[in-house]
Amino acid sequence: MQTDPPLTPADELVGGEPPRPQRPQPRRASARFMLSHPLHILSLGFGSGLSPVAPGTVGTLFAWASFVAFSRYLTVIEWGVLICAGFVGGIAICGFTARKLGIDDPSPVVWDEIVAFWLVLLIVTPATLTGQVWAFLVFRFFDMVKPPPISYFDRRLKGGFGIMFDDLVAAFFTLLVIALWRMSV
């Protein structure tokens, strides 16, 4: 049995060019993928990001439901700590899942929407159900349409920080619209 000799650097050149590094093929987020690591469970919003239709909207609805459920048990200070920790931790969590999926800002990663909408709800509370619906609609508008400067940050900032930051800016603009509306009434 004859074996080929080991490749030398000259053998690796094709047409005089060094070989191009292969970028891994993007993976599809699935329940199996989500359950393969605890950080995926968080970044995929406990499965809400696996929705085949509008995962960001479903993730925001999850944020709303969890805010209502946990508000009975958490003080404003505790919510603030949770949101800050969720943002800082979300940078690593979302970046990790995005790298594993092979996509810069995968739509199934909804932890960014969850933390940002928690912030919106914390600041507008107490709000009527109608007020919460309007906060939801305005936040989804800014998150989906990404008007300037949100689109600027979305294009320029990469990795986990970029994933988290553009939703934080969307939350800021949502709160600005709500504040302007409240001042005009």
TrEMBL record:
Primary subcellular site in the record, as a coarse category: membrane
EC number: 3.1.3.27
Region (Disordered): 1-27
Enzyme class: hydrolase
GO cellular component terms listed in the entry, alphabetical order: plasma membrane
GO terms of biological process kind: phosphatidylglycerol biosynthetic process; phospholipid catabolic process
Domain of life: Bacteria
Pathway of action: Phospholipid metabolism; phosphatidylglycerol biosynthesis; phosphatidylglycerol from CDP-diacylglycerol: step 2/2
SUPFAM superfamilies: YutG-like (SSF101307)
Subcellular location: Cell inner membrane
Key word Cell inner membrane present: yes
Residues of the YutG/PgpA domain: 42-180
GO terms assigned for molecular function: metal ion binding; phosphatidylglycerophosphatase activity
Topological type in the membrane: Multi-pass membrane protein
Residues spanning the membrane: 41-64, 76-98, 118-139, 160-181
Keyword Cytoplasm assigned: no
PANTHER family for this protein: PHOSPHATIDYLGLYCEROPHOSPHATASE A
Function, as annotated: Lipid phosphatase which dephosphorylates phosphatidylglycerophosphate (PGP) to phosphatidylglycerol (PG).
Official protein name in the record: Phosphatidylglycerophosphatase A
